[in-house]
Amino acid sequence: MKKWLLAIFFLPLAFVCAGCGTMKMDTAIKFNPDRSGDFQLKMTVDGALVGFVAGEERDESFERWGRVPSARIREYDHDDKHIFEVTIPFQKPTQLKEALGEMGYTVDFQKRSTPFTHYYEASFAYPKEMVKELKSSLDAAEEPNEIFSQAELNNMINSMFSFKASISLPGEIKTTNATVVDGQVASWTQRLQQLDSTKILKVSSQEPNRLGLTVTIGAVLLVSAFVIGGIKKARSPEPPEL
User: Fold this and answer.
1) How many CB atoms lie within 10 A of CB 5?
2) From start to end of 47-191, where are the E strands?
3) Helix, strand, coil % over all residues of the chain, rounded to 5
4) What are the sequence ranges of the domains in the chain?
5) Contact 163, 190 (CB under 8 A)
6) pLDDT digit string, tens, across residues 188-242
């Protein structure tokens, strides 16, 4: 990835003025109550960046996705944009953890239940190596430049790259460090300069344990019936002796 990113920052002025293009990476994870779910990654590029993603300078990480177990790859062009999609369905969180681990991502999901409530916790982090390379490319762009001021260059780079991650959990979200919460979905949107290899995206939720409540109420009613029946039997007069 570093190779084509570095190339972007040293394009001729005329080419830059024409627009370098943009790259948008959307990552979405959905966890279901039974711990199954799906992972989706969608990278959309346009302008000059298309050549670095789909051309001869294509980064090897795109090919590595094809070797991830159960990953479904789709790549196509639409409205002058090149789109690269990865979908990974999973039955257990450990399957997703192993699959994304191949690419350097960190993901975790926990569920615990009480007779009254289900509790869910999830976390996600971008690959440290990817963030490191992106940051080093950004540092390279901070070298002396006769075309742009540093502020102009930083603004241009920030406008080119966008990273959005979202996690969907069952129930009602209770705690998160997300920037946006919409119903059951927590989302984080970051620009290139905001990426942090140490940042872990976290979210937790909870929902009523309807089965547990039903069983608990049923058990209470059953025990109550036995207790009441025993009390009535104890209070009933004994039949007279013949």
Assistant:
1) 23
2) 72-78, 81-90, 106-113, 117-125, 161-168, 172-176, 180-182, 185-191
3) 35, 35, 30
4) 2-104+125-199
5) yes
6) 999 888 888 889 999 999 999 866 556 555 555 555 555 565 565 666 665 555 5
Q: What number of residues does the chain have? A: 242
**C-alpha–C-alpha distance, residues 219 and 223, integer Å:** 6
DSSP notation for 168-227? E-SSEEEEE--SEEETTEEEEEEEGGG--TT--EEEEEEEE-HHHHHHHHHHHHHHHHHH
**Would residue 70 be called left, alpha or beta, if left means φ above 0 and alpha means ψ between -120 and 50 degrees?**
left
pTM of the model: 0.78
User: Nearest to residue 188, comparing CAs of 165, 161, 160?
Assistant: 165
Which amino acid belongs to residue 39? F
Cα distance between the two ends of the chain: 100
R_g of the chain, CA atoms, integer Å: 27
